[in-house]
């Protein structure tokens, strides 16, 4: 069982989970092979075998996985049950798109709230999530034990917002602002520049 | 000069370009070393040397780069001057955020138009870009020689939109819908699932 999971594997894990959970009772109480999962989902056999082995150590040659155990292992890996809270700073178009996106639950992530400095949107809701004032971030993060933040504010405001996040106890930041952010060494910052993804794609670099 | 450019290098290239272009006349007409660029931008010397060598073959030991030539090479690599058109299918929150984002120009990319099926927003403008009906995509792409498309529609509509894009001559697709898309082999599809980026970050996998 390895922790070297690629984003491609991570993308397929919810597929496997949904399939395994959809199996009828008589099948889900027995064993299942990576080959059977691959066939059912029209995926490559070798790939599925590798994916499953990376999150579960329960596979046995010619026997496969105990289906219940495999479901448990994938769920445990994806963090189902124990949800990690996430906050979004900036409730403009991108921030609102993230607040409205329901795909985080598959990965054990739950957006708790959005934050903005615009008085006109503070107090509103997006997809059942409140948009709060930046001054409330510290309190909300500590109360909900949130350590993950997403920055979608304009680049001119990004460093100030990053500083507020760090003070609020955020240790993982996904940054969409096209600017380099400074933070203490214990804080991980991942820059997500959509223009770069597109540039890589257009130049056939990915 | 190598084509093995990483996204990290790609992220720094506009920094170098802006710095080199900001140099006073007397400096920009001479030579410049990677070390001098690194010092000015507070970046790692080795990294800058590697970045510059990956896009320009003009560097000479103890002499550095002819500044004008280096500017030309970075501009050429980033595609300045010859802009590639891009279309965005889906003018919801995410689509509108992309239409409003001005950072694509740094990478020689230009969003030509957005497309949607909602009659209420067809005909409106976002950041000077028109939101058009899906039925107009074919005509717009062929007229503007556009080969790059971004999908931001809900997952239920993504495959249909992908099919329209392929018919319109799009060969590179950045897909934000959390669904697997089928397209002919000559079409490159890059999936961009923000939940996965966040999941990788929260598990310290990146």
Description:
Two copies of one chain form a homodimer. Chain A has nine helices and nine strands. The first copy, chain A, has 206 residues and is α/β, with parallel strands linked by helices. The first copy, chain A, folds into two domains: 7-78, Orthogonal Bundle (Arc Repressor Mutant, subunit A); 84-199, Rossmann fold, CATH 3.40.50. In chain A, a hairpin with a 2-residue loop joins β5 and β6. In chain A, α1 packs across α5. Chain A starts with 6 loop residues before the first helix and ends with a helix. The mean pLDDT of chain A is 90. The interface between A and B is large, with 47 and 47 residues.
Unreliably modeled segments of chain A: none
Looking at the chains present, what oligomeric state does this protein adopt? homodimer
Number of domains of chain A: 2
Strand content of chain A: 15-25%
How many angstroms does the end-to-end distance of chain A come to?
28 Å
Greatest contact between two chains: A-B, 47 and 47 residues
Number of strands of chain A: 9
Task: Please tag this protein with its features.
homodimer; 206 residues; alpha/beta; Arc Repressor Mutant, subunit A; Rossmann fold; 2 domains; 9 strands; 43% helix
SSE layout:
The structure is a homodimer of 206-residue chains.
Chain A: H1 7-22, H2 25-28, E1 31-32, H3 34-40, H4 45-55, E2 65-66, H5 67-78, E3 84-89, H6 93-100, E4 109-116, E5 125-126, E6 129-133, H7 137-144, E7 148-151, H8 155-167, E8 172-175, E9 188-191, H9 194-202
Parallel strand pairs in A: 3-4, 3-7, 4-6, 7-8, 8-9
Antiparallel strand pairs in A: 1-2, 5-6
Helix pairs in contact in A: 1-5, 3-4
